[in-house]
Write a structure and sequence with these properties.
177 residues; mainly alpha
């Protein structure tokens, strides 16, 4: 995993870019949660499920199928009374998918099971600059400096650039309307 900070920032950036000033606190929250949620699968270690198992870490909850089902469920249940649910679904979907994409760019662990349950193959991208965040809070804090420094460069800076560009875009668009 990248850390929860990195994942939630990336997911928030997606939501803010897509919705601009129309982003509600509710969608920002559910997007950030969607970006972090896949790592809830670390609980699998408690049940003795091996890393490489389809239900193991970076397995099913990191898959494209899970992201799609989760986004559909949240859009239908949590946002059922709201307009533009299609856009909301896509924001949640991209926020969910950002998790696996970032994990596939980390320096360690096993790859991401994007195609589970159809294939249990694990994938990394050829470009893997993000320092992997260890499983467990204590181990994270031991290495927090290196991890957060790496995430600042490879997640924080790109997110800030995108947020800045989106802000200019939405400001111009609002001025035109
Ligand atoms: Zn993960």
């Amino acid at each position: 995993m990248a850390s929860a900070f990195g994942h939630s920032l990336a997911a928030y950036t997606i939501a803010k870019t897509a919705k601009g000033p129309r982003l509600t606190g509710k969608l920002a929250f559910w997007s950030a949660l969607s970006g972090v949620l896949p790592d809830a699968d670390v609980i699998s270690f408690r049940f003795g499920i091996p890393y490489g198992d389809p239900l193991g870490h970076r397995g099913l909850t990191h898959s494209l199928l899970f992201g799609a089902l989760w986004s559909l469920l949240v859009a239908r249940l949590v946002f059922r009374r709201e307009e533009r649910r299609g856009t909301t679904f896509f924001v949640l979907l991209l926020a969910s998918y950002s998790h696996g994409l970032l994990d596939a760019m980390t320096t360690g662990g096993q790859g991401v099971g994007f195609f589970i349950p159809f294939s249990n193959e694990r994938y990394f991208f050829p470009f893997r600059p993000i320092e992997v965040s260890p499983i467990g809070v204590t181990r994270f804090f031991d290495q927090a400096r290196a991890i957060l420094a790496s995430e600042c460069v490879w997640i924080g800076v790109p997110c800030l650039i995108v947020l800045f560009a989106a802000r200019i875009f939405w400001r111009r668009r609002t001025a035109r309307d």
